[in-house]
Inverse folding.
């Protein structure tokens, strides 16, 4: 901004002056271009959490989630190792014809799921890793089948691989893996009456296109299989009893991010915790603590309510077709049953929570009819509905502004900053201006004279007309030198105070227009 004014001045001087050998200097007064800004309720709170009522008043509507529940709270599928050593039972060497099947090994395998009894499970991700060591002097084929399964195409899981020929002294080793993503398992076993159990089979054949092979009881095949990283997507059966504890956890609380200090008194509020249980099983939740923390002041306020430290029963969710309907539980906080107003008025930037959860506290009361979608379990949200009707005492808001006066070759000696304000808020406002160092920290303050007066209001304290005010800020030479050489950015701080009425309602169309004009005493020089 200043550079443009300096450029015009210098050009005019060149056009109407003779060239000089020595430096030429002028002390001039320069009026900088105007810096304009408008503050609305969106800037002071954040429009994403504001809703406008029928009368154009504003309600703050904010939700934050409590500590998420780890999916392993329900049950975790451990890696499961399966191993098969096969030695030929022949005392004398025998000849195996091409295509001969010399291993057929069906087996039942069980997942270790503690006390959970799962009858059906869909896999989101996971794999079978295999290692085959063969001493058979001919290529062989291995076919893996897991019965009572379906892949995404509706087919039973079946894979075939080939293994090169080997010898007793130099066996062939083949390693690899099969992807189980999207495979569903019936875990009732071969009889259909079990749980956590699946039936598999390994078939081994001599290469049909190869040669006959001679083997004896000195030849062996070693098959090692391992289920790795099984992550379920859905499970049905009895989910078992389990417990989960999380915290203390610091949850970012952004409602009052724009407020840098001060005190508010709230007229009314609606605050509640809503817990949604999407799991097809009974559960309990206990909120051991919820603490409002203001890191700027260091002040903390712990929520006091009968729900703190006590178990809350959560009804099971229901699964209808492709839709899940959660069991819902709501806990309301009022100024009559808690200190929730003090929690909110603390103007916190963090909420510290500590949560416990229990699944199936009464055991298998569903007779094995629990269900679980692992991507949608238990949600616990803290809801705030706060009509912006309040008393404000020294509420501080800050905005960074670049004065654009940094110019080492044409230093500014001193300046007078004038702030022309049109105030459409029913608040008086004080202005402070701070110099910032190179890292954006507060370096020094400037003397401010004047006050931004409140807008004119009616008997209900609603704004009728805005009011104009002028605030002056003198910048002496020693502080202007800092702006010249270090950082021309300043922090504009506005401090609001409501008038004498008990509580003031904030409306959507309230605003504060500011115009900053800098009158600078500068030195211009050229050669």
């Amino acid at each position: 901004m200043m550079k443009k004014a300096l450029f015009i001045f210098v050009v005019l001087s060149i056009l109407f002056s003779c060239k000089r050998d020595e430096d030429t200097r002028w002390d001039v007064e320069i009026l900088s271009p105007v810096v304009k800004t408008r503050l609305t309720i969106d800037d002071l709170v954040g429009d994403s959490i504001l809703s406008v009522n029928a009368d154009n008043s504003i309600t703050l509507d904010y939700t934050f989630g409590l500590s998420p529940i780890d999916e392993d709270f329900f049950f975790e599928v451990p890696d499961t190792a399966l191993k098969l050593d096969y030695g030929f039972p022949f005392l004398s060497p025998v000849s195996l014809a091409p295509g001969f099947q010399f291993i057929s090994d069906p087996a039942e395998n069980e997942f270790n799921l503690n006390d959970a009894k799962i009858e059906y499970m869909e896999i989101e991700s996971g794999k079978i890793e295999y290692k085959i060591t063969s001493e058979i002097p001919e290529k062989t084929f291995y076919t893996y089948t897991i019965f009572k399964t379906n892949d995404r195409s509706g087919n039973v899981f079946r894979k075939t691989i080939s293994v090169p020929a080997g010898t007793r002294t130099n066996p062939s080793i083949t390693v690899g893996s099969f992807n189980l993503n999207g495979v569903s398992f019936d875990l009732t076993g071969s009889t259909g009456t079990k749980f956590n159990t699946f039936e598999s089979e390994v078939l081994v054949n001599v290469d049909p296109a190869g040669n006959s092979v001679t083997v004896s009881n000195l030849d062996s095949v070693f098959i090692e299989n391992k289920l790795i990283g099984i992550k379920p997507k859905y499970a049905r059966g009895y989910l078992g009893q389990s417990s989960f504890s999380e915290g203390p956890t610091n949850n970012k609380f952004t409602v009052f991010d724009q407020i840098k200090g001060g005190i508010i008194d709230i007229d009314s509020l609606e605050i509640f915790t809503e817990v949604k249980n999407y799991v097809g099983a009974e559960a309990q939740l206990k909120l051991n603590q919820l603490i409002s923390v203001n890191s700027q002041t260091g002040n903390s306020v712990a929520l006091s309510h009968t729900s703190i430290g006590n178990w809350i029963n959560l009804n099971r969710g229901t699964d209808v077709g492709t839709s899940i309907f959660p069991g819902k539980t709501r806990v309301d906080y009022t100024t009559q049953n808690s200190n929730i107003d003090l929690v909110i008025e603390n103007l916190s930037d963090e909420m510290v929570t500590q949560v416990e959860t229990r699944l199936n506290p009464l055991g298998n009361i569903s007779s094995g009819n629990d269900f679980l979608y692992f991507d949608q379990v238990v949600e616990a949200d803290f809801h705030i509905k706060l009509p912006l009707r309040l008393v404000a005492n020294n509420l501080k808001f800050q905005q960074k502004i670049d004065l654009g006066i940094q110019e080492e070759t044409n230093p500014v000696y001193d300046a007078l900053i004038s702030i022309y304000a049109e105030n459409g808020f029913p608040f008086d406002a004080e202005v402070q201006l701070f110099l910032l160092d190179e890292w954006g920290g507060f370096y020094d303050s400037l003397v401010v004279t004047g006050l931004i007066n409140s807008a004119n209001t009616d008997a209900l304290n609603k704004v009728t007309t805005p009011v104009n005010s002028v605030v002056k800020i003198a910048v002496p030479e020693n502080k202007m030198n800092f702006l010249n050489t270090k950082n021309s950015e300043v922090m504009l701080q506005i401090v609001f105070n409501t008038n004498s009425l008990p509580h003031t309602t904030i409306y959507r169309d309230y605003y504060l227009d500011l115009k900053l004009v800098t009158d600078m005493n500068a030195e211009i020089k050229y050669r």
Notes: Residues 1-28 have pLDDT under 50 and may be disordered.
